[in-house]
Amino acid sequence: MPRIIPIRDLKDTAAISKLCNESQEPVYITKNGYGDMVIMSMKAYEEKLELLDVYTKLEQAERQLEAGETVDPRASLQKLRAKYGI
């Protein structure tokens, strides 16, 4: 369930930091009852960026397949494993 807090609660920075680090989900900040900002822990942010990178690479690979371009899957897998330490 998303956590939603009013902007006035940002004054307690220690509590906000704890809230962000307890959950890997973003915290939604409202201003005058409307969505205004989203905050999250550094760990969650970095994980989202890595996931976005993987999705981007998958999309590129799908386009290559549709265009009839072939890629050596073993070489691609080795590169991904090296990049992510798998």
The average pLDDT score comes to 90
Strand order of the largest sheet: 1-2-3
Radius of gyration: 19 Å
Distance between the termini: 31 Å
User: Looking at the structure, what is the overall shape?
Assistant: elongated
Largest sheet properties? 3 strands, mixed
Total count of helical runs of at least 4 residues? 3
Helix content: 40-55%
What is the H/E string? EHEEHH
Percentage of residues in strands = 15-25%
Features:
elongated; three-stranded mixed β-sheet; 86 residues; 17% strand
What does this structure look like?
Antitoxin component of a type II toxin-antitoxin (TA) system. The protein is of the alpha+beta class and 86 residues long. The protein contains three helices and three strands. A three-stranded mixed β-sheet has the order 1-2-3, with no helix packed on it. A hairpin with a 2-residue loop joins β2 and β3 (34-39). The protein is elongated, with a radius of gyration of 19 Å. The model has no long low-confidence stretch (mean pLDDT 90).
